Amino acid sequence: MISNYIKNTGLNLIKALLLLVLIVQVACKKSPALQEDPYGGGKAPLGIKFSTDDPTPNSGGADDAVTFKISGLLSYKNNFQFLVNEIAATVTAVTDSTVTVTIPDNASSGGTTVIANGQSFFGPKFTVNGKVSIDASFKAVNGTNAAINDLLQTNDGNYLMVGAFTNFESQAPSTPVNHIVLISHDGAFQSQLASGAGAGGVLQTVNRLDNGQYIVGGFLTSYNNRKGINGITRLNIDGSLDSASIEVINLKPQIPEFGLDTVATFNGGVFGTIVKSFVNNGKITILGNFSNYVKYFYLRSTRDFKVADVTKMSQIARLTTDGTMDSTYNYNPVTRQGYAGANGDINDAFMQADGKIVAVGSFSTFNGVQANHIVRLNTDGSVDATFAAGTGTDGPVTSVRYNATTGKIVIAGAFNTYAGKSLNGVALLNADGSADNTFQFSQLAGGVPNFAAQLNNGKVLVSGNFNSYGNIVRQGFMILSANGALASGYNNTGAFQGRITKMIETTSALGNPAVLLVGDFTKFDNTKVGNIVRVELKK
Q1: What SS3 class is residue 463?
Q2: 26 plus 53 within the same structural domain
Q3: What is the SS3 assignment for 369?
Q4: Per the domain annotation, does 147 fall within a domain?
Q5: Is 98 within the bounds of a domain?
Q6: Are 434 and 455 in contact, with CB atoms under 8 Å apart?
């Protein structure tokens, strides 16, 4: 037994030694392969390199000849592409240190690229001249630190802006800029607004009453540290809170001042958020995503505890100028509450001259009536069955705008059809809600539009997070002709990032047509901006 064990062990040892020798021999035979380039299957550098010098000229328009300094291209003279912001340019000359190209018709400002042998080489940014440019004379450069949701031109030509911001042009903290600010027509900060500590919450909307006072609304709980405000309040012409001293129950008669309280004169509000407000015939109509109307009974309240009367009102209500709810609007006297409202969010709305309201959002019914993402309401808050939206849209609508000059409505959002017709995210409507078939919106890629508005000259401004339109590079912003085609000469600007909430037509410092854009955006034409920009639109 022992001898067999020793014998077997010896044999196993010999086998192991033979196997080791074989492995070493194989490894030695293959050792040259270990020295091969592990990246041998890749592509060798081509030696193409852009110069850091600017091209000549450093800006130009369609069909202009431009020379870029670049080395290493001559060897690939007939085998490369030159792109201006992803649009192929025609190459007219190549040397060992330069390339000359013709700027293509549909090019916009952005980076330049050479593609050779499947490799990309990135060059300098090139500015494409056109009819659209940032108005450099506008004084709002840094803008705000958060979204601007609405702005209103004051009677003296300034702009009152509201939003989610807490700073404008680095004025804070020395000057509080909490969700409301006054700027001049040319974008300069105006210090005369008596807003004090500002709004305690994000403001979404601002309107002017007939007497010059302002109505502001949003998700609002206080103003200039005065509490007891629910979503909406009234401001004096100078921006201060319209307030009053009223009598309340005094639980400490030995301290007479406890029998008085200073409160907002506007006594009415909502539990939730107000998205839009409209002033018409001495009444204030509010829309948003709220569930109840609330009013305080101050004579039954103390300074520390307010007795409230709450009425169920879903998403829409009409108030008098002192905040009292108008029970003739969207209110059922039998159930003593409002009607159902929308079954989804209201995103945007506008009021017609006759007091009717067109609202859009993510809902499919309004007050129990089918209304796919768009509805028109009569002056009593009921659904207007004459509005010719048909089946509406097949997806949410983000924005709606009306142009009184052209008489057209423009909607934008994440939809593909309107009233059963193929419309890829933007639709131009007649005043009765029917689609204007002369406007044909082309195919977008890379995202969806979230804002569209028609200019008085018929052109349509569109923004969103898309990167091409009809297979032409458009990075989040474009201007269309009235038929939906890209407006010639008006699409030279580069990348836009963010969302526009409002557009006002105005003039530039040179007197040229312009638009003032505000919203939640950080870049326009490849330039960093702070949610506000004035854009010149040359004729």
Answers
A1: strand
A2: no
A3: strand
A4: no
A5: yes
A6: no
* pLDDT of the residue at 45: 60
Q: What range defines the domain where residue 9 resides?
A: 2-32
pTM value is 0.89
pLDDT confidence of residue 46: 78
Do 26 and 78 belong to one domain?
A: no
Residues 249 and 203 in one domain: yes
- Give the pLDDT band (50/70/90) at residue 43: low
Choice between 321 and 253, residue whose per-residue pLDDT is larger: 321
Residues 363, 367, 370, 372: what is their CA dihedral angle, to the nearest 10 degrees? -20
In this structure, is residue 132 part of a structural domain? Answer: no
Check if the beta carbon of residue 461 is closer than 8 Å to that of residue 452: yes
Phi, psi angles (nearest 5°) of residue 71: -110, 155
Listed residues 328, 348, 371: the one ending a domain: 328
| Percent over 90 (pLDDT), the chain | 86
Q: What is the mean pLDDT of residues 30-36?
A: 40
Kindly give, in sequence order, each residue whose CB lies less than 8 Å from that of residue 291, ignoring residues fewer than 6 positions away.
270, 271, 272, 312, 313, 314
Whether residues 215 and 91 share a domain: the answer is: no
Buried b (16+ CB within 10 A) or exposed e, 140-152: beebbebbbbbbb
Q: How far apart, in whole angstroms, are the C-alpha atoms of residue 87 and residue 105?
A: 9
Q: Which two tokens stand for residue 297?
A: 């009974």
The mean pLDDT value for 474-498 works out to: 97
How far is residue 106 from each of residues 84, 471, 497, measured CA to CA in Å?
10, 11, 20
